[in-house]
Amino acid sequence: MRRFPISAILSLVACVCSTAVYAETPQQILDGLTQQAKTESADFQGFDAARGELFFKQTHANDWSCASCHSDNPLNAGKHAKTSKAIEPLAPSANAERFTDPKKVGKWFKRNCNDVLDRTCTAQEQGDVLTWLLATQ
């Protein structure tokens, strides 16, 4: 029987465990936004899919909306309004990789909200949009 050095086994376990730590579900991302929204506003009453859809499709500063690049239907691929770069579907039901990495979620909400709104999105706005995207089948 072949024996493996304990350091090799521990390294393998560490790698497996570290990737699991970064893997999240869209619901876990939403749960984090819930906690953030509660700290931003004592009046937080929860997220609303209809409000999220309206926010997503409505034009804001710069006459852009989220749909300007992601399309009105987040089950479909989109295209960046300025660069024409292809964008994979935004809805988690159409793209299982969406909303699974908290760092990417934060990065893209920050970047896209600044482009669309000229400001950072609130946790309420992010949660409303994500709630709608999770309901989109």
UniProtKB/TrEMBL annotation:
It comes from Thiothrix winogradskyi. PROSITE patterns: CYTC (PS51007), PROKAR_LIPOPROTEIN (PS51257). Residues 47-137 form the Cytochrome c domain. Residues 1-23 form the signal peptide. Keywords: Heme, Iron, Metal-binding, Signal. This is DUF1924 domain-containing protein. It comes from the Bacteria. Pfam families: DUF1924 (PF09086).
